[in-house]
Fold:
Amino acid sequence: MRDKAIFLDTNILVYAHDRDAGAKHTTARRRVGELWEGDRPPSISVQVLQELYVNLLRKRVPAKEARQTVTDYLEWHVVDNDRDLLMAGIEEHERWKLSFWDGLILAAARRAGADVIWSEDLNPGQSLDGLVVVNPLA
Structure:
């Protein structure tokens, strides 16, 4: 999988930082750690970082620690939210009958040039016009 360009959905990062998630935490932490060590940084979007921050706060992570976690992930390739991404996300939502938020994830992954989306929410093995969904926790 290391030869593929990977885009991460929020849920994988949340599990990597949620110590109460049991086996999912252990697996996500290991898999995300492998990405930090790889030659090719993965991609995420501003949306992913926003959702990660909010989820960390919900899990009672101190704001300063949540902020630092988000700051750390800014080292990866980050796709910015803008009007073109908004419209592309709406198109993905309509085309694939996904939630609007998943449509934005798909649009961001395409903009990043990803081959693979790591997600627990989307259907594993599904190919969305060449963008393949993988559940790294399975």
Observations:
- The radius of gyration is 14 Å.
- The chain has one domain: 6-80+109-134.
- Helices lie at 10-17, 23-37, 46-58, 63-73, 83-96, 100-112.
- The mean pLDDT is 96.
